[in-house]
Design goal:
Chain lengths: 168, 376, 129
C-alpha cells in the first residue's frame, strides 16, 4: 500500500506552516514545528479530522540543553498518526497548553509531565501533583536526577548483606 | 394533620467526603475521593499513584531483552498484550523481518490473554454488583487458560517476556494445538453462562454511567468504553499489526453508552477472540519462531538511533509505546501510554458526577479498570 | 423476568468440582516449567554471562571454600532466590547448558538462610552469616 494520504497531509502542513517533516512508513508522519506554532497547528489539524490525541511525551536531551515534546494524534477518518515535535529550553521549560483544542484528554497528560519533568503548560488550570506525595526534590525523570544517590541516602541499610549487590 | 415531611428535621449543610479508597475490597489499588450530598455524588477526584513504580525510568537502564521480562508487569492481567507492544517497538527500531510462524503465535497468545482478561472483567463486575457466584465461576474457567500458559510459556501468570524482540522465546510444545482447541470449548461454555439473564447485574447496570459519544472523544476513551458509546474504533482494524489484516472478525458497537452496554460488548469481544484464535490455528505455518540474529541473548547489541510510536489494542483499550533510541545498547526514553490513564481520571470523574452512591461500583467496574497501567 | 441462571447453578451443585484436593492429589506440571535452579557444576566455565543478564542482579559469582579450591578453581554462581523473578534468561544464555530450571516450586520457607542457593555447602566456621 502506498502512503498517498500521508504524503498529502505532509504537503499541506509544509505549504501552510512552512515546517519540515517525513513520512516514516504507512500511517506514520513525523513533523517538526516551532514552539510558538503549537496552538495554531493543533487547531488546524483538529479540523482536518485528527480528533483523538493519543499521548504527549517529553524526551530529555541533556547535551543539546533542550526538551523535545511530541504530540501523537490519530485521525479515525484518514487512519494516520501525525506526530508533532517541538523543542523547548531545558532550564526554563514552558509552552502553551493544548487544552483549548483537545480538552481533558490533553490536560491529564500535561499534568503528569509537569510533575515528572517540570514543564509549565500555560493555560492548564489543573497542574496539581498526580502520583507523588510530598515530593521536594527536582523533577524525577530528568536525566540529571541521580536516583542512585537518592535511594542510597534514604533507604540503604548497610547491615543487610543482601543489599550490598546494589550499592557497592 | 402534620405529614411526615413537616416532622422531618430541616436539612443541614450535608456535603461530606467519602473515600472510596485503596484499602477498600472493591476498588483495587486506587482511591477516589467522593464529595457526597445525601445519596448523590456531587464531585469526584481521582487519587492515583499507589502503584507507581517508575517503569519509564527503569527501562532506560536495562537491555531490550530484560525490558521484555519487565514489560509483563505493566499490567499483569493482560501480560502478553503488553509484552507484544514492547516487542513491536523494539522490532521496528531494529528494522528486522520476523518469521511468519512467530507472528501467528504472537497473535494466538495475545488473543488468549484478551479472553482471560475479559473473564476477570466479568468476575470483577459480578463481585462489584453483588453476584458473587459469577466471580467464582469466572475465575474457575480462567484457570483453563492459565494451564495453557503454563504449558507454552512456563509460568501461569507471569510469562516472563515470552513475546520478546525478534519473535517468541520458545516454540509451541507437542500437542499444544489440540489443547488450545479443547480449552476453546471450555471458553464457549463460559460464554454461554455469561449470556444468561443475571437479574442482579442487569438491574444494577442498566441506565447508569451513560457516556455520550462527544464526551468519549473529548475525554480520550478508547477500546470497549468508546465502543459502548457508539464510536467504531479498533486498533486491530484501523492500524493493523502482526497478521490481523488476514483475520476475519467483527467489531461490536453499541449506542446506549451505559454500563450494561459495555458489559455486553465484553461478551461479544470474547466471542470474536475465539474466532480469531481458531483462524490463526488453522493458518499456522511451520518454520522458525525467532529471527536468527536474536536467537541467543546478546549483551552488547546496539539499537539503531531513531524514534517509533507503536499502537496496539490491549484488552482495556489502546496501548501505545513511544521509544527513542540514540544508538546505544539501552533505550534512551520509553513512554508508555496505558488505556486506563484516560479511563480512570478524566472519564471516571465525569461519569461519577451526579451518580447515586449505590451505583458507584457498577460504573467503576464497567470501565474495566486496572491501576497498574495507569500508574506504571 | 427469566431466571435461567438458577438452572445453571443447580447443575453446578451436582457436577464434579473444578478443583482437586491439593496436596493429596496434584495436576501434573508440564515440561519447561520455570522453577528452582539446578547448577551442573562440572559444566560451568565461569563465563559470568548468567550474572550479567539477570535483570535483578540475583546471581553473584563466588569463589569456592578452601577444601574445594583444588577441583573448582574459578568462580561459580550463587543465586539469591528472594531477588529472582524466575524468568529463565540465565538458562537461555548459558553456553554450556549448565544452569537449568527444574519443576520445583515449593520454595516458601520461614528460614531466610535457605533463600540463598550457594554452589558449595557453607561450612559453619567459614560462613559469613
Amino acid at each position: 500500500m502506498e502512503p498517498v494520504r500521508e504524503a498529502e497531509i505532509l504537503q499541506s502542513l509544509k505549504t501552510k506552516f512552512g515546517v519540515e517533516g517525513e513520512v516514516q512508513r504507512i500511517r506514520r508522519v513525523w513533523v517538526s514545528i516551532g514552539k510558538e506554532q503549537v496552538l495554531e497547528v493543533s487547531g488546524w489539524i483538529k479540523e482536518q479530522g485528527f480528533e483523538h490525541l493519543s499521548s504527549i511525551s517529553v524526551t530529555d536531551w541533556v547535551e543539546d540543553g533542550s526538551y523535545e515534546l511530541t504530540y501523537h494524534l490519530w485521525s479515525p477518518r484518514d487512519k494516520v498518526v501525525v506526530t508533532l515535535r517541538t523543542r523547548i529550553s531545558r532550564e526554563d521549560p514552558s509552552i502553551a497548553s493544548v487544552m483549548p483544542v483537545w480538552d481533558r484528554s490533553a490536560g491529564i497528560h500535561e499534568r503528569e509531565l509537569h510533575e515528572m519533568f517540570g514543564v509549565k503548560f500555560e493555560g492548564n488550570p489543573d497542574l496539581a501533583p498526580l502520583f507523588l506525595e510530598d515530593w521536594e526534590g527536582p523533577p524525577p525523570f530528568r536525566k540529571d536526577f541521580d536516583w542512585r544517590e537518592y535511594t542510597r541516602e534514604k533507604y540503604y541499610n548497610p547491615e543487610n548483606e543482601r543489599e550490598h549487590v546494589y550499592y557497592e | 394533620m402534620s405529614t411526615t415531611s413537616e416532622m422531618m428535621i430541616p436539612a443541614l449543610d450535608t456535603d461530606y467526603d467519602l473515600y472510596f479508597g485503596p484499602a477498600h475490597p472493591g476498588s483495587g489499588n486506587f482511591g477516589v475521593k467522593l464529595r457526597v450530598d445525601g445519596e448523590e455524588v456531587v464531585s469526584a477526584r481521582a487519587d492515583p499513584g499507589y502503584l507507581h513504580r517508575g517503569f519509564e525510568k527503569l527501562m532506560e537502564y536495562r537491555l531490550p531483552l530484560q525490558n521484555a521480562v519487565l514489560s509483563d508487569r505493566l499490567c499483569i492481567l493482560e501480560a502478553l498484550n503488553w509484552n507484544l507492544v514492547h516487542a513491536e517497538a523494539v522490532d521496528e527500531l531494529l528494522g528486522i523481518e520476523l518469521p511468519e510462524r512467530a507472528r501467528y503465535i504472537r497473535v494466538i497468545m495475545a488473543e488468549l490473554s484478551r479472553i482471560q482478561s475479559h473473564f476477570i472483567w466479568f468476575g470483577a463486575f459480578c463481585m462489584g454488583t453483588g453476584f458473587d457466584s459469577g466471580f467464582k465461576i469466572a475465575f474457575g474457567y480462567r484457570d483453563y487458560i492459565l494451564d495453557l500458559f503454563e504449558l507454552i510459556t512456563g509460568g501461569r501468570v507471569y510469562p516472563a517476556g515470552y513475546i520478546c524482540p525478534g519473535g517468541v522465546r520458545r516454540n509451541l510444545p507437542e500437542g499444544a494445538e489440540q489443547k488450545i482447541l479443547q480449552v476453546l470449548e471450555k471458553v464457549e461454555e463460559m460464554i454461554r453462562f455469561e449470556e444468561m439473564e443475571h437479574p442482579t447485574l442487569t438491574s444494577r447496570a442498566r441506565g447508569v454511567g451513560i457516556l455520550g459519544p462527544a464526551d468519549a472523544v473529548r475525554l480520550g476513551a478508547t477500546g470497549p468504553v468508546a465502543r459502548g458509546s457508539g464510536i467504531r474504533t479498533d486498533v486491530r482494524r484501523d492500524d493493523p499489526y502482526e497478521v490481523y489484516e488476514r483475520m476475519d472478525f467483527e467489531v461490536p458497537v453499541r449506542s446506549e453508552g451505559d454500563a450494561y452496554a459495555r458489559y455486553l460488548i465484553g461478551i461479544e469481544e470474547t466471542k470474536q477472540s475465539v474466532k480469531i484464535v481458531r483462524q490463526a490455528l488453522s493458518q499456522l505455518p511451520a518454520g522458525e519462531t525467532i529471527a536468527p540474529e536474536l536467537r541467543k541473548p546478546k549483551l552488547k547489541a546496539k539499537i539503531p538511533a531513531g524514534q517509533v510510536y507503536v499502537r496496539n489494542e490491549a484488552a482495556r483499550g489502546e496501548a501505545a509505546v513511544h521509544m527513542v533510541s540514540d544508538g546505544s545498547i539501552h533505550p534512551y526514553r520509553v513512554k508508555v501510554r496505558g488505556p486506563d490513564f484516560l479511563h480512570m481520571i478524566p472519564v471516571l470523574e465525569h461519569l461519577l458526577k451526579g451518580a447515586q452512591v449505590a451505583d458507584v461500583p457498577a460504573i467503576y467496574w464497567s470501565l474495566n479498570i486496572c491501576p497498574a497501567d495507569m500508574d506504571r | 423476568m427469566k431466571i435461567t441462571v438458577i438452572g445453571q447453578l443447580l447443575k453446578n451443585l451436582v457436577s464434579k468440582p473444578m478443583t482437586v484436593k491439593f496436596p493429596h492429589e496434584a495436576i501434573p506440571i508440564p515440561e519447561g516449567y520455570r522453577g528452582e535452579h539446578v547448577l551442573d557444576i562440572e559444566k560451568c566455565t565461569s563465563c559470568t554471562l548468567c550474572a550479567m543478564i539477570c535483570p535483578n542482579r540475583a546471581i553473584e559469582m563466588v569463589e569456592a571454600p578452601p577444601e574445594y579450591k583444588a577441583t573448582y578453581p574459578k568462580k561459580y554462581p550463587k543465586i539469591d532466590l528472594g531477588k529472582c523473578c524466575f524468568c529463565g534468561l540465565c538458562q537461555d544464555i548459558c553456553p554450556q547448558g549448565g544452569l537449568t530450571l527444574s519443576k520445583n516450586f515449593f520454595l516458601s520457607t520461614f528460614d531466610v538462610s535457605t533463600t540463598i542457593k550457594a554452589p558449595f555447602p557453607l561450612q559453619s566456621a567459614q560462613s559469613a552469616e
